[in-house]
Design goal:
heterodimer, A: about 110 residues, Arc Repressor Mutant, subunit A, B: alpha+beta, 4 domains, ten-stranded mixed β-sheet, globular
Chain lengths: ~110, ~850
Amino acid sequence: MPKKEMPSGALGLLILRVLHSGPLHGYAIAQRIHTLSAEVLHIEEGALYPALQKLLLKGWARSEWGISETNRKVRFYRLTPAGRKQLDSELADYRRVHEAIDAVLRTA
Amino acid sequence: MGYFFRRLRYLWNRDRLERELSDEMEFHREMAAREGRSNFGNALQMREASRESWGWTWLDRLQQDLRYAMRVLWRAPGFTLAAVLMLAIGIGVNVAVFGFFDLLVLRPLNVRDPGTLLRFHRRSPESYAYALPYPEASFFRDHSQTLSAVLLLNWSRVAIEGEDKHVEAHFVTADSFRELGGTAILGRTLLPGRDDTAGAEPAVVLSNGFWQRHFGADPTVVGRTIRINGKPAVVAGVAAPDYNGLSMSVPAFWADLGQQPYFAEGSHLLTDFSVESPGVQMFGRLRPGTSPYAAEAELRSLAAELRRQSPKGIWEKEALPSQPAGYATGLLSGNRRGSGSEAASELYVVFGLTGALGLLILAVACANLGSLLLARGVAREREIAIRLAVGAGSGRLVRQLFTESLLLALLGSAAGTGLGYVVLRSLMVVSEAPAWLNAAPDWRVTLFAAGAGIAASLVFGLMPSLQVARRRHHSSTMRQFLIGAQVAASCVLLIVAGLLGRALDRALSAHPGFDYERVIAIQPGLGEHGYTPAKSRAYLDTLQVRVRALPGVQATSLVQVAPLGRGNISAKVVTDGRAMSVMLNHVDQEFLSLMRIPLARGRNLERGDTRAVVVSESLARMMWPGQDPLGKRFPLGDDFTVVGVAGNARMMKMEDSDAVEAYLPIEAGDLPGLAMLVRTAGSVEDLARQAATAARQLDPGTFPEVQLLKNGMRRKQENAQAAALAVSAMGGIAHLLACLGIVGVVSYAVSQRTKEIGIRMALGAKPGHVLRVVLQRLSLPVAVGLVLGIGGAAALSQVLRQQLFGISNLDPFTYIGAVGVFAVTAAVAALVPARRALRIDPLRALRWE
């Protein structure tokens, strides 16, 4: 299976979307994106953690301590109401751009 | 907002958050390893990338740079010391100038709530006066609604037992202490309701300085009776050392204003409406919520109301403009009065000039330091090459080099603040400034010093950093510019110092146009003791007879303003559209011959003249160029006719060559204010003693002051000396710095071009040629700098014109002399290191890398 790098702006959107279904820790976020993308998208730590820090800083997510499946204390990320709003607006933006690109590709 | 606070929280909890982050990432790796995927990315770099999103990386870098800069400076103690010293001098001079400005203009006085205090003076379209007649001020005190308190102050000179000279007494409204927050360290202050009631026992509050000087700080002084002008008064208390009321001069004591006539026998102060009355200074405290404009408007209408009651006392259309009184500047106006509009304050001119000179010194220091940093860039070439090679961006490098400059600048600021304080403090001690003026730097001065340091680092540090980081520091344009700037700045300073030096020389040696060595002035102060013109006439006539009978006395004369004394009268005179400021004096017919002032044309003033005037030669030349001044009309309120022309004698303002004089006959109204000049063939000191006794015997109620004119002259000369000395010191410092800069640049040029010089010498170049090669790059910036410096000095010295004792501000000797001195010293400074080029051994130079 070939591993694709993420397009830059999309990572934030994906993390928001994945967190929408419930709080997760960092590794689980990467895993979830990996599986959901049928193992196409692989997220490096070097990109994931800066993106998560930015989410916290912007107030779109909060972190809380929890216990991992391997019984380790680990940080879980949970979407805030502001994060939900951000997800909605980013999704809308994404769809509009996506449709636009699609339209060009179909007719040109 | 939330974003900002979250960021701050990240800064606050950095260490914990970083630990958590690294923990989290470790967990990520464990999980990945468990699933058989290994990731060999650089963990540290990844952590850094995450951290960067917190947005505090710049702070880390700054910390890094500072730590590094400290190490670099610590390792080069010689360079650091030289740089900090140079900056300390440049900044220190400016801190001293600003500190003085702060003290006089910006810093509130040490009184309660200084911001709401105003000082009022009188103004009408024709006249202005800074003292108000007491009845007028008292009317305002009783009726003003916008002012919560009106404080009045009269200062008189009185004789006090046990002191040879007269001392200053401040007669104030009794509520002044309470209103200004003044306290007593012994006994009590003046109390309203006690000291200002009719029949109150005469009581005085001693100033702290006088108490220490006169009474040796005797703690039992309270309750003692002392004699002032021969009148007994009880010492009620001693004021705290930091209290001085609203005055720049420190009195011997304060007493209630109502008791002034008790001490000055016959004084009409409390009833005299005339502008000649010594009057009082009037201060007011604004009621909360009112503006100075409201107070001025109210006082204007009160004045109009008072004018209906006493039309003679109040001027037509009299207004009472206010100025802030809570600052030292508000108190500097003294009791000036005059006609027409007021001359602009010279204070700001002086500050502008000294500020400009101070900035020039700072500019020289900065230019010097800039060259030094460029030269250091050469020594650090390897270091910088390595840094660039391992991946430092040039922006990062500039930032780091600039941080070093900034650190230097802040060290310089700190040292400069200290130096500035020392300079200011010693200047204040030398000039006998009042002790309550505190020279210690306040927050404004500290801020100024830091600002000057940062501005300086931008000037001397930023360009060299850019050039060194881009490895362009070998280009000589920057260096030449720096040399040019130094030459120009120090040239200005040298010329101005030269001008003041010449002025001092003139003041000490040139003939002032009159002879003062064997003359004394007796000031009986008749007006202060309520003498009428007729009574004054009788007194002065008798005094004249008695003084003439003293041994050695050659002549006596009556004048309104004694030469070389404290005050002067000037008036603005307009003829044919030309306006000029004229120094006026009312004199009798003996005056010119007594002062040895020659009569050039026409006749002297004669007894019985009323509308005649004798003018000085320069006044005649300026007012009626190319015409015969005799018989001309001299408009001065009434018209006067010019009857004579006298030689120039700058008695009132010796330092101002533009000052011109006019002598008017004495009018009856002048009599109570006259002084008597006495010339002797013998000793003036003996004469002064005998004359004082004679005057004292005439009326024991008066306390005449006797002054030697030569003492007044000495005081003026000392002032000129101090100014010349201060500016010469500034010029000397700047000159020295500039010479050091030239030495540095030339020796750098020699070491840079060792190889080239070696080749030239191997090919047979003569020593003169070699020197020319080394120095050729220096000649252009020095020449341009000299031209700019001369131009700058010519412009700057314009404001000095009135202080130069008749030396032109474009005096060619000074300019040629200063440029000559500069050229010679600069040549020596350049030749000393340049001679090294001649000793270069061609063989070794060729191998030199």
